[in-house]
Amino acid sequence: MSIIAQNITKIYGEQKALDNVSFEIKKGEVVGLLGPNGAGKSTLMKIITCYHPQTLGNMLVCGYDVMENALEITKRIGYLPENNPLYLDLYVQEYLEFVAGVHHVKNKKQRIEEMIDLTGLTPERKKKIGSLSKGYKQRVGLAQALIHDPEVLVLDEPTSGLDPNQLVEIRNLIKTIGKTKTILMSTHIMQEVEAVCNRAIILDKGHLKADDSIDNLLATAKANNLESLFHKLTSY
Ligand code: ADP
Ligand code: MG
Q: If you average pLDDT over residues 96-106, what whole number do you get?
């Protein structure tokens, strides 16, 4: 199992951002984490990637507990945070060398070449990150998340703010990567999950509302009172 979340609750001050959320993600699954703004998607991803701890419950990633083995988990997980924070003054290649160094990647040069090739960054590799289009910046974000060949990828709204062409390209890239990795990606758009994922976990106001295959979710939306939530999630 790549991720096991057991009764995860996260409280910020007075705000309960996650309330007793449980699910399991098997190795090789590509799962969409779906929910409107404020649902708790980023909060959950920060717990999985060891950026901050849960208030209650247990989170296991690749068999390790986030509270006890953060170092082992960060070796095995790649994370593209919301809003893709990058060093805009660095050149693409220079930035990937820096990230590879942080992760102690062996065969650094070769690995960077592979990532530039996989993410389609070849024409932009000599440019400064700040001068790239949003679509190419996302490719750099994906390349840095993949550089240490992690088992699990956590992508927080990887296509937000992209134009329609860039959106299709990045979705296709995620689909390619998903053939060999476990992926959890968040979005607030239902169509995105239909295009890329086999399964969706739906959060709303910190509660887990559904966890099923896309086909089952669409077929049973009415019976499970998910229609109004789906309506919110299908409007751009
Ligand atoms: P999503 O990513 O689904 O939009 P978030 O996980 O960012 O949702 O936020 C869930 C809830 O927790 C929101 O109500 C948000 O305002 C709140 N929240 C998120 N981060 C913090 C924080 N650092 N301090 C206080 N409240 C927060
Ligand atoms: Mg978010």
A: 95
- The model's pLDDT over 57-91, given as tens digits with 9 standing for 90+, comes to 999 999 999 999 999 999 999 999 998 889 999 99
Position in ligand 1 atom list of the atom nearest CA 156 = 2
Question: Which numbered atom of ligand 1 lies nearest the CA of 13?
Answer: 25
Half-sphere exposure (Cβ direction) of 97: Cα atoms closer than 13 Å: 8
What pLDDT, on the 0 to 100 scale, is given for residue 60?
98
Determine the number of helices (DSSP H) and then strands (DSSP E) in the chain: 9, 10
Q: By CB neighbour count within 10 A (0-12 exposed, 13-18 middle, 19+ buried), where does 197 fall?
A: buried
CA gap 146, 79 in Å, rounded: 8
Q: Please choose, from the candidates 70, 67, 42, the residue with its C-alpha nearest in 3D space to the C-alpha of residue 55.
A: 67
Q: Cα(104)–Cα(102) distance, rounded to whole angstroms?
A: 6
Q: Which residue has the CA at smallest separation from atom 17 of ligand 1?
A: 17
Query: Could you tell me if the CB of 182 is within 6 A of ligand 1?
Result: no
**Cα 122 from Cα 157, distance rounded (Å):** 24
Alpha carbon of 81 to ligand 1 centroid (Å): 14
pLDDT of residue 221: 79
